[in-house]
């Protein structure tokens, strides 16, 4: 493996940070609200960090474990999300079906000749720490046993910004050669061999987080290697029969590694906040508004589908006249102009340096547009 | 991964390249497979290989057709064939539009030109573009074909011509810009014959047993550039430079004035790379300061009496305008640079976009970084092939003009790409390649605040 | 997004109202479109929940699946849908005109003109949103491989008649959408976004209610305010004031209203099935009907706003005059409709699950041609679209300042007059090595010229190349005169088709060779159905 593709920096060396982590953890707990447990960071949330890594607000709130949905509601811009119970039930029913009979169908999708013979160790235990330890032990034993092994809902830990995030992949399969494969079970269909690319992309990013977490375990197990291809299992066509597709997650891995490494910024962001800042949703709206505004956001319309706070941030971006509220790409041709007023003033000759190509292009655009609309008026 | 041959001590580039070429020619002339695929990194002697294979096939009495992607590429191959073997009859099949081929072909008596394939029947070697070949119908298939720039050829384009030959040599550079379509083609993503994919990916999906070769040595890129380009863009198929660090030297008669353009020129002359970094700012594509800086660097390159010494000749070659090129991402940027150069009285320097610089070679290139000054990175600006083309056109040095802040832009780039099942992931992706190139360029940085 | 459209969006942001992006209508609209507003069940592929469908905006037909997990009820829904849609599709099939088509004579291999029928008009289908188009495609895919009892007496779960046929038609319409400029199947959001710029992002424009609010806000309200309300406004029960235009429903609706109603329906059905005697059966039947009516009422209330919004969108777009070349593109849609009619009548099998290598390449080539055609035609039809091309240097308006006769230096000299023009635009005419050609409209066709040189800033010379007749001197009216105002484009006005691809049975070895032809064509097999296929 080439160095430039290598494993990259370890996002959060867990041992070295034991001391330094405490104050950060405290500070983040204060931001969250002393009585509030941290909103658990799961793989979906970690994968979503890459959706808008330029947004400091999101980085801080997620890193601090703030319940953004509750915060958004307290700010008066509740997130419109929710899951339909029909979709929820369907998802659960499909996963149960895939894993019935000791996961034989799932193993068959991986090409296992005799799935009935595969080991299926119990990885349940009390509490996330216990389950994580139990999982690590089961992985080690399975690798030593050199036998096909299916781990149903194992638990993995990944330290993010001083806080352990507990991750629960749908399944991990250990191959006799020591290879570990992450299995993602989704209930969107694979229709004639293809599936919704946006959903597959999200699944791949989520799986990449599991691969990263597994690599921490594998590093301490001789002979173990985590596959950078994951198995995505979905219903086939319009049926509820499972079918699988192998997805290469190397790209998602390298992005996730880099973004997790940048999660160290959470400390810096938290340290830079004025005293008294709190994201506790039980605070007053004014206080919360001031606290949220104390950390910058990078709103773009894509946030609407990816972040609970998006409607709040959209409102602020629109108030400020930020052109990004119309889409990230809008900035492309506007150079240094960043607000609606600046752009329109430049376009209509009220401001701006005509030597700036962006200003010159805007003026030509405005003139050409006016000419064409006038032509319509005149017939 | 086993260690690439390029890292072996005692690596003899000439011998390695000759061995690779011999293997390719053997498979082409005597192999039993219907196809042979050759990956050629930048400047690895792709055209030389195509000409050599064509001549050997012709001399073995096996008539062949040559498929290239643009008229300029076809004309270039015709001229190279004529140079190597002036008595070989060559057919140039061309379109029926005005000015369909390079006028230089009119001076070659052995080259017959026609818009009709029937007029060229019986000639040993007939060359044309894929688009023109696609209109040829009702002829006896050729026994052999050579398909040049096969990675830039679209699968549907190969479909239209593949019935014209029985077996073929496919040559191309997998690291350059992928072919594209102006309409969505997602519905065929993952199909082995996705018409919008590259010809080679379809060919290999259906014929995985075909022998695949690789030219292991870049004769163009200097020792300073080959490792970076190989690591960043060809991680699984590494190559090395044919020359050593001492074989190439770029020097200037006029000493540095101490200005930033002069300093970045000296840095590039010394190390092969230079980054002229302007202050961070969001700019329109035709950033006047960056365009101006680029023009000044070119002006100084030409004014300072540059001389390029290389393995090609015992005497240094003067660095004249025709040995320098400017590369941009967009056509309007190229136009702005041309205007700025004209204002400084510079003529004769090639200024073009990455797409149009593909396959070309210069002593020194000056590149406007595709992400310079951008408020956002788009798939277009991140495309691996674009950066690869821009960073691999030079024999001596490459100078990149860029605004500060691109690393941050990359870090803040949302990663929400859709994933199509069954599509082979192209690796490395542009995001990663851009990071590694920038990290390297940062070691050769000269900061400049224009106007100060 | 082009800068000129960005500017329009910013103007809309400031004014609170949508701004025009077009001065003519770029899509043909039928006098009698069939509107379809479908809803689907969350989390289930191909489990429709309900639909409003029809050609009369005052009298839509409401189709409902009271329990979407029940295959029989789904089949009943699809059968009703077929009963509504197929007669409309059929009603255009027999009104034809004679037309000519180029075909290859199988005997001689030559291109010959063949007299064929072309339907005078074609049925047009309108859905609210882009996801509605995807849903039409999905419905088509889910139906066209079904087998009816008539087709296959042994089919374990035979589909009602006409379902496979409707599946083929919906597949055809869903595939035709991918051809740029095609109008057999359109969605209201695309129609509106093509003609107006709102003060929100294109992502937010996918919401029909919000998009319509920007363009046509209620009296006394700004578009921005109305859009915000349409997007997020909820009533006291937490239900959206403007339900989504489908096919997905709002989760709050599913959980609070729909799920209990479906549960009630299930219970009523169970009670009815368990009824012991005639009297209680009657009562149970009444309860079942009431439960079903409740589901219907709920879905009707979700569907009606989108139904009305879709018709309103059609009103707004219809008010623009149709671009002259939109009619020419509609003729291509009529060919497409006629072609599919012919394939159905000839008893050809349903469209395959996946295109063949040749089929895919043909589609891609024709769509690329149509894309170039659409871009050229919209610019030629609409000065506002041309303005965007002028801004990017792909077109320029000019005034002719000089004309100098000239001829080719060949045995038979042909005219190549030099025309000098003045322009305030900034066409991208030179710099590279290649010769740049420009085009202008002339006599319903176009004339091309090549760029010769810049004479001065804003003054350039062109050499006319064609369309001047066969004589030594140009035909009258074919050469511009001093003072003429001409808009030149750097893109051609007409498109040439690409090269002919091999026949599928001649697919070369590079692309896997000819597709396998055996008795049991894999493409035609129905989807496997398992006993527990409740979805």
Automatic annotation (TrEMBL), chain A:
It comes from the Bacteria. Residues 1-22 are annotated as: Disordered. This is Secreted protein. It comes from Streptomyces candidus.
Automatic annotation (TrEMBL), chain B:
Keywords: ATP-binding, Helicase, Hydrolase, Nucleotide-binding. Gene3D superfamilies: P-loop containing nucleotide triphosphate hydrolases. It comes from the Bacteria. GO terms for molecular function: 5'-3' DNA helicase activity; ATP binding; hydrolase activity. The keyword Transferase does not apply. InterPro entries: Coronavir_polyprotein_1ab (IPR050534), DNA2/NAM7-like_C (IPR041679), P-loop_NTPase (IPR027417). Residues 293-403 form the DNA2/NAM7 helicase-like C-terminal domain. This is DNA2/NAM7 helicase-like C-terminal domain-containing protein. It comes from Streptomyces candidus.
TrEMBL record, chain C:
Residues 98-110, 341-356 have a biased composition (Basic and acidic residues). Residues 90-110, 341-369, 495-535 are annotated as: Disordered. This is Uncharacterized protein. It comes from Streptomyces candidus.
